[in-house]
Design goal:
Layout (H helix, E strand, L loop, with lengths): L2 H33 L92 E3 L6 E3 L13 H12 L5 H12 L5 H14 L1 H12 L3 E11 L2 E9 L4 E6 L4 H8 L6 E4 L4 H5 L3 E3 L1 H14 L4 H17 L6 H19 L6 H12 L6 H4 L8 H17 L5 H19 L4 H10 L1
Parallel strand pairs: 3-6, 6-7
Antiparallel strand pairs: 1-2, 3-4, 4-5
Helix pairs in contact: 2-4, 2-15, 3-4, 4-14, 8-9, 8-11, 9-10
């Protein structure tokens, strides 16, 4: 074989390998992008794929399972009996001899739920009158008789809570009501009963919106949910005493404008999503997000280890210093000190691309990291809003998708009220029945 032919074959082979290499690089890039959805700093451990699991959680540990030595045990207190049952015997079960008086009485208190109860069917004879003055027809009303439909307020309330608190699908609710009360309703009726409950709390839902708009400190977050298979976003606006929820197609600033309006003057505690600083400059960025990301970098890149340690020390020292609610002069001193410390670490030379990108995030949010120092009552993390979203994340796994705008509106109103009542320590069944009766 001539030398020219050999060279030509080698060049062709090199060209082929180069093309294959480019294809493989593109494929790797595509797979890394898909994997990033499950292996990023904000992905919860339960969703991370391929994570290591120890076969024996106690391997290498010297501890023992159960309570520690000296731990005071807890026992369920006995309930007060509603009735007493005398349990006696006449004859010995082995030989048949007649037994006399017992030599000892053992007391055993049992808590039991009642047998399934049949539904109560009530006929309301509603009197209608003609006013002699204005000639208007007047109908009498009863708080326990709903204006719409043939199901009572307790049925509406229980059905709604079975769906939104107990997270049961419509067909499971149908089965539960049949088993417990012998009540036959269809899944479509379940949806309509939740709609009636949502209508009953409409006025309070709007009142919460007005109070949210006037809040001095507001914690905001959002997460995705499908409506008829189309991507939407659940927005949560929460304070220590109430929560307001909307579901919108947008994740942008127009939702903030719709819900809070231009008149909002409070401080928003949030993550680093771009619409928030576009809406207002009164922001507290979440330190939990910042520290999670710096920790993730430190575990992968040696250059990020001292940076994460410094950020953690800054956060811990500030939260400790603010525990005793210092006066404004001390707060301003801490604010200046913290800014100088963060600037010091931002000004250092970094070489790793991911670390430089992280430093860019810190720089972009620099004016928002220390709002909590000079504003008493502002929390340094957005955990409050994230906790408010957890119930929706669980429901999302069960529901899969909301079916239509009607179901979306019901979800907004009912979940707003359940979250708010829970924050206030109120009984959701009692509050929902009260709303239906008013």
């Amino acid at each position: 074989m001539h030398e020219e032919e050999i060279i030509k074959q080698l060049l062709d082979l090199i060209d082929q390998l180069r093309q294959e290499n480019e294809l493989l690089k593109e494929r790797i890039k595509e797979l890394e992008a898909r994997l990033a959805k499950y292996e990023n700093v904000h992905t919860p451990p339960s969703q991370r794929r391929g994570r290591n699991r120890r076969k024996n959680q106690n391997d290498g540990s010297k501890g023992t399972p159960g309570q520690k030595i000296g731990h005071k045990g807890l026992t369920r207190p006995h309930a007060k009996p509603d009735r007493q049952v005398e349990v006696t015997a006449d004859r010995c079960p082995d030989c048949g001899t007649k037994l006399g008086d017992p030599f000892r009485i053992e007391s055993k208190i049992i808590e039991e739920i009642p047998q399934p109860q049949p539904i109560i069917v009530t006929e309301y004879k509603i009197a209608h009158y003609r006013c002699s003055c204005c000639h208007r027809e007047v109908a009498a009303n009863d708080a326990d008789c709903p204006n719409e439909g043939i199901f009572g307020n307790n049925t509406i309330a229980q059905t709604t809570l079975l769906k939104y608190e107990d997270r049961l699908p419509h067909r499971k609710i149908q089965d539960t009501l049949k088993r417990l009360y012998g009540l036959n309703i269809s899944p479509a009726t379940v949806l309509d009963l939740t709609r009636r409950a949502a209508d009953a709390v409409q006025s309070e839902y709007e009142a919460i919106l007005n109070r949210i708009r006037a809040a001095q400190i507001l914690y905001v977050d959002e997460t995705s949910i499908d409506v008829q298979g189309v991507l939407h976003w659940i927005w949560v606006f929460t304070t220590p005493s109430e929560t307001f929820i909307v579901i919108r197609k947008s994740r942008g600033m127009k939702v903030l404008m719709e819900v809070l309006t231009r008149r909002f003057t409070g401080i928003i505690v949030c993550d680093g999503w771009k619409p928030y600083p576009k809406f207002t400059n009164r922001i507290q960025r979440c330190w939990a997000h910042l520290l999670r990301e710096s920790k993730d970098l430190a575990e992968k890149i040696e250059e990020a280890v001292p940076l994460h340690k410094a950020l953690k020390e800054i956060y811990e020292s500030l939260t400790k210093a603010l525990e005793d609610d210092p006066p404004p002069k001390v707060r301003m001193y801490l604010w200046n000190l913290a800014r100088d410390a963060l600037l010091h670490w931002m000004a250092k030379d970094y070489f790793e691309e991911k670390v430089l990108k992280f430093i860019g995030k810190i720089c972009n949010g620099f004016e928002y990291w220390f709002t909590f120092i000079i504003n008493p009552g502002v929390e340094p993390t957005n955990n409050r809003a994230e906790r408010a979203l957890r119930e929706h994340v669980v429901l999302r796994k069960i529901l899969g998708t909301l079916r239509n705008g009607k179901g979306t509106s019901i979800h907004e109103r009912i979940m707003t009220m359940l979250a708010t009542w829970g924050q206030r320590g109120l009984d959701s069944l009692q509050m929902l029945r009260s709303s239906l009766s008013s």
